[in-house]
Specification:
The protein has 334 residues and is an all-alpha fold. The protein has eleven helices and no strands.
């Protein structure tokens, strides 16, 4: 019997949560130093405001933030909420991974994936930047994960998935440039897809992409609707509303038991699709106009929230619920 099996599960879970807090603290360093270009192992932590070197007890994950009441002990400036948030999310995901997959090599790799997911999401949110090194580490980890047969694909499928992920995003990004004059996705999104393809394979990656578009719509379109109304662009606001409603109509129409008549079912799909195309035409026109208007500041130009976090969030969901999602898709297609 493995000696770990003799330990209470609650004890191991507590240890993993604390370990996750420590890794989360390290990820905060990786995020901020990665964006600033500083060396990872250079010097102890300092307050970004007053530059005073922090004592060891000021760096205890989560607890130090609570004891200091979110303020620097020296200059009393507010400490970014990013620090405890990243630490808590990391610890929670590590714990959930252990409770789902047990104390195993698979869990170790999934925790590595989550650590990279959190780091890349944070840099994308803060400065819309994906650091290449993080994406390449994810790629290598994904290939090793598949080589060890810890996932659902083998190493050949992992390599094919990685290539597919990169190429499909580059294709969509350049297609967006043809229609709107600017890339539909950043280069960092292609690098994220490169790593996710190695972990999940191209088939599951398609599910992740579809789910990420849904997540992005839920988080972005309401903001764009509010912004359009604030700028008195009623036609554009209506277009966003139509895009939002149409997506869910086309997604869920097969679940509406009230629609028994095939002709009515077909007419709803056709009408919804026509409305969606009209709305997308208006949105694309707005993007082109913003692109051509060089007199406006960068903040005033048309800009969507970074897509990387939505892609990563979708991948995180699939780590735990891929089987259920596939079952739902098969049920929808029947």
């Amino acid at each position: 019997m493995n000696s770990l099996e003799l330990l209470p599960k609650g004890f191991i879970a507590t240890y993993i949560f604390i370990f996750g807090l420590c890794i989360g603290s390290f990820l905060n360093v990786a995020i901020l130093r990665g964006l600033s270009g500083e060396e990872m192992v250079k010097g102890r932590s300092r307050c970004p405001k007053c530059k005073n070197q922090l004592k060891w007890y000021m760096n205890i994950p989560l607890l130090s933030y609570l004891f200091l009441r979110g303020k620097c002990a020296y200059c009393k400036c507010k400490i970014s909420f990013q620090y405890p948030l990243v630490e808590f999310i990391t610890a929670s995901l590590f714990l959930i991974s252990y409770l789902t997959f047990g104390f195993s090599l698979k869990t170790l790799f999934i925790c590595i994936f989550f650590a990279l997911f959190i780091t890349m999401s944070a840099t994308d949110f803060i400065e819309t930047v994906i650091i290449d090194t993080h994406a390449y580490i994810l790629l290598v980890a994904g290939i090793i994960y598949s080589y060890l047969k810890l996932g659902d694909i083998n190493i050949i499928q992992a390599i094919i998935g990685a290539i597919f992920g990169f190429l499909i995003f580059e294709f969509m990004a350049r297609l967006g440039k043809v229609f709107t004059g600017c890339r539909a996705f950043g280069e960092g999104d292609s690098l994220i897809a490169l790593g996710l393809g190695a972990i999940f394979g191209w088939k599951t990656l398609l599910i992740i992409i579809a789910l990420s578009f849904l997540i992005q719509s839920l988080s972005t379109i309401p903001i764009l609707i509010k912004k359009a109304f604030a700028e008195n662009k009623i036609k554009l606001a209506i277009s966003y509303i139509i895009v939002f409603i149409s997506m869910f109509t086309l997604l869920l129409i097969n679940q509406f038991e009230l629609i028994k008549n095939e002709m009515i079912y077909l007419l709803i799909i056709i009408f919804t699709t026509i409305l969606l195309l009209w709305a997308l035409k208006n949105v694309i026109t707005e993007i082109k106009n913003k692109k051509l208007d060089e007199t406006k500041t960068q903040e005033e130009k048309f800009n969507l929230m970074p897509f990387g976090p939505a892609l990563i969030f979708a991948a995180s969901i699939c780590i735990f619920y891929l089987t259920q999602i596939k079952e739902w898709i098969l049920g929808y297609l029947q």
